[in-house]
Amino acid sequence: MQVNQVAKIEETASKAYSLPFAHRSDDFLKIMPPAADTEWHPLPNILDGMMFAARFIGSSKMWGPHRAYLDLVHVAGGKVFATDGKCLVERSVGDCPDFSILPAQIAQIKAFGDDPSHVNLDNHRLSLKWPNGNFLVTRYRTFPDLVEPVTQLIAAHDWNDFIKMDPDWRDQIIGHFSYKLARSTVVGGHNEGRIHFTPGRIVGGPSDRQPDRQLRIVTHAQSDVTFTQMQLLRALKVADEFKFVHGPDVSHFLFKAANARGVIVLDRPVDPVPVLS
């Protein structure tokens, strides 16, 4: 009896696997190392600043390509900044070239475990290198017309006479107003997570139309103002100092952290804030 027989394999054709695979050209396989004459610029430690700003980005999906800057973190003028259209933050990092990148790209940089030491910008290609030989090439964008208005918006406020953050005050607000937003039952409506501050209480809940919790607390707001849940919580979690600034038509919430500061434009409630009793 014969054993270990190898069956003859017949070539078969199947429509399921007749894919038009493309031939890999020599150009595709060619490795392109960095040019020997690459001009490298020293970088300050910018990773923490970029990660800080990445928490405050927005989304251009609702606004279109002309608001693409909402999706990115911007390094410009020795600072890192980001905005979602109503909240603007900046953090000082030191002298470095200007570029804008996505949070996903910042995560790639973080994966190296340390700050890159040098950068090169060439035709929208961002090259980063580390002292130990690590190297990353990615894409970048620039928004030169954005730097001046952002700088003016920040500088327009008085950054003196702030209230020092009380951890107990912060923990009460975060503890009461950290919840999952309810799905709106109104046709065409949605819940934005509105949280209303009055001088002596905070009112909100998972449903904007039916707030279900009220916290009697000194809020330090002199007028009725409205945050969105996301903006309020992320600002409170990083702020060391804060203050409210009230104008005739608009209010702002200013906050400061280590080498950083931010501004949130606050809504004024259209209707009186309900009293829950």
Describe the structure in your own words.
The chain is α+β, with helices and mostly antiparallel strands. It has 6 helices and 16 strands. It has helices spanning 26-29, 47-54, 103-110, 144-155, 167-177, 229-238, and strands spanning 41-42, 73-76, 79-83, 87-92, 99-101, 118-122, 125-129, 135-139, 163-164, 194-198, 201-204, 213-216, 225-228, 241-246, 251-257, 260-266. A hairpin with a 4-residue loop joins strand 14 and strand 15 (251-257).
Which structural traits does this protein have?
277 residues; alpha+beta; eight-stranded antiparallel beta sheet; four-stranded antiparallel beta sheet; 16 strands; 19% helix; 27% strand
Topology (SSEs and partners):
Elements: H1 26-29, E1 41-42, H2 47-54, E2 73-76, E3 79-83, E4 87-92, E5 99-101, H3 103-110, E6 118-122, E7 125-129, E8 135-139, H4 144-155, E9 163-164, H5 167-177, E10 194-198, E11 201-204, E12 213-216, E13 225-228, H6 229-238, E14 241-246, E15 251-257, E16 260-266
Antiparallel strand pairs: 1-6, 2-3, 2-5, 3-4, 4-16, 6-7, 7-8, 9-14, 10-11, 10-13, 11-12, 14-15, 15-16
Helix pairs in contact: 2-3, 5-6
Task: Give, in spatial order, the strands making up the sheet with the most strands.
Answer: 5-2-3-4-16-15-14-9
Helix share, percent: 10-25%
Listing every helix as H and every strand as E from the N terminus to the C terminus, the arrangement reads HEHEEEEHEEEHEHEEEEHEEE
Tell the overall outline.
Answer: elongated
Q: Beta-strand level of the residues, as a percent range?
A: 25-35%
What is the overall number of helices?
6
Radius of gyration: 26 Å
> Average pLDDT value?
89
Task: Count all strands and give the number.
Answer: 16
Reported for the largest beta sheet, the result is: 8 strands, antiparallel
What structural class is derived from the secondary structure elements? alpha+beta
| Quaternary structure type | single chain
Low-pLDDT segments, ≥5 res: none
Distance between the termini: 92 Å
